[in-house]
Amino acid sequence: MFVFETFEPGKIIGSRTLVLGPDLIEKWLGLFPADRDGDTMPPGMMAAVYIRAYSDILVPRPPGNVHGQQLFTVNRMPKIGDELITDLRCEGKELKGERRWVRFGSETRRADGELMFSGLMTTLWAK
């Protein structure tokens, strides 16, 4: 179980690979048809790529975590068909009274190593 005490600032927690297949893009565009941008991944999907990695890597985790803040920095948007590898790490953590805050950093790269985008998410951790 991933609890507050187990997170080590600066340490990579894990990685997840995701292929941006046409089927995945079409599911997104079914919800957001205005996001179609040729052969480029819609920008809104950055959060989906991140949260899939987060959800797959941080297992098991306690119920009740609350998403506090999220920020992405884009180097280049991936193309449909790209294989993406997202590394998740603990950027830091702090205890404020009874509240346990954890900052998760991510880097999403193509399989050839080129950085696509990075992210930072702050979460109120339940336990």
What CATH calls the topology is Thiol Ester Dehydrase, Chain A
CATH architecture: Roll
CATH H-level homologous superfamily name: Hotdog Thioesterase
Largest sheet: 5 strands, antiparallel
Number of strands: 5
Contiguous uncertain segments of 5+ residues: none
User: What is the succession of H and E elements?
Assistant: EHHEEEE
What sort of overall outline do the alpha carbons produce when their principal axes are compared? elongated
- Helix coverage percent of residues? 10-25%
- Neighbour order of strands in the largest sheet: 1-3-4-5-2
Mean of the pLDDT scores? 97
Category by helix and strand content: alpha+beta
- CATH classification class: Alpha Beta
Strand content: 35-45%
Our measurement of the CA-to-CA distance between the termini, rounded to an integer number of angstroms, reads 10 Å
Overall tally of structural domains: 1
Number of helices: 2
Radius of gyration: 15 Å
Secondary structure blueprint with pairings:
Layout lengths: L11 E8 L2 H10 L13 H13 L8 E9 L8 E14 L2 E12 L4 E11 L2
Can you put this structure into words, describing what you see?
This protein has one domain (4-125): Hotdog Thioesterase (Thiol Ester Dehydrase, Chain A, Roll). Strand 4 (99-110) and strand 5 form a beta hairpin. Strands 1-3-4-5-2 form a 5-stranded antiparallel beta sheet, with helices on one face. It is α+β, with helices and mostly antiparallel strands and 127 residues long. The mean pLDDT is 97. The longest helix has 13 residues, at 45-57. It has 2 helices and 5 strands.
